[in-house]
Predict the 3D structure of the following.
Amino acid sequence: MSDELQRGLEGVLVAESDLSYIDGEVGELQYRGYPIEDLARNATFEEVLYLLWHGELPDRDALAAFSESLAAEHAVDDAVIETLERLVEADERPMAALRTAVSQLSASDPEPDADPEDFEASLRKGRRITAKIPTILAAFDRLRQGKEPLEPREDLSYAGNFLYMLTGAEPDDVSEETFDMALTLHADHGFNASTFTSIVIGSTMADLYSSVTGGIGALSGPLHGGANQDVMEMLFEIDESDKDPVQWAKDARNDGVRIPGWGHRVYKTKDPRAKILQGKLEDLAAASGGSKWLDYTTEIEAYLTDEGLVEKGIAPNVDFYSGSVYDHLGIPMDLYTPIFAMSRAGGWIAHVVEYQEDNRLIRPLSRYTGPRDQEVTPIDER
Ligand code: COA
């Protein structure tokens, strides 16, 4: 056993997985061997979920049955809505509200005593959780605006139903396709921090609700999922300041500020998902005639590239362009990370079930660096 310390588990192999292949040097991502570009163009999020959970792309009949079973699980209990009402009153943040509500979902799971080694039952739980996350988020957003939550629509796609429940209007084709694609791009990404958190919890054979709740907690941090909101906040800050984007980035660099949406533990070149979202942003900007966010992000990217960041392995990641895309779709900024969770839950569930099929409790070591053999002084003598 090596006693070399691997801070942040960087570069440490801990498991084998058939789910996502990532080449961080060339900027490549595949789910079960299918390039992300191909999936984004030619498969819906429902197909991607099926692929991740069942190992192959569905045919038409399998997809219809799967989509129907997913849509049938969208509705949440009144008790969950009541919890959301209380969280709105307490001014809770959306990621924390989602974490609380997902945890509560287990109370109404119809198979509470399912054997953790019954992986089909786990996937059914996973399907329920994934189906209910959009309903929770849309309800939370409407409640905080003083509006009634809307009943989910089983006749719409996963992406379309979420946008409908959020806005109260059926989305147009471009919005639905764009959002569906964004969900596909975020669905899985190897052993990232939130997926690993879910797997650590799953390795104790705890149930899937615990794994997904833990994954949401890990994703909420600014070094992980929270970066997409940070990027949008940066763009708004630039817009409200008297600086142009390049001057803003220059000052941020001089102040030692990390540029949100840049850098990645695995990608040492531009994230392939960022390239796809950038293309989508170009389409949205052209269609809407509003290219401000596209211009800002493109100018910042060109400046930081000239400054040699990309050469050093710090390049745009998926979050750099996703926020601008969501802004075009009219999605509130503080829902960007929860939306990431909506999609990534699919990956968490796939990984936990895959890991549990050949389970080994995850239990690393730490090197003790504190004092030893101290004596306890009675409290009155301290
Ligand atoms: N802007 C400017 N410099 C950055 C940077 C960024 N966004 N990200 C990393 N760097 C620099 C660090 O300052 C460090 O430089 P140094 O060696 O001169 O000190 C070097 O790159 C390595 O950084 P490190 O923190 O060791 O990399 P990491 O692999 O631990 O970090 C992230 C990965 C994602 C945590 C980091 O890049 C980051 O904080 N990015 C911004 C947040 C973000 O977008 N997160 C979403 C990831 S999908």
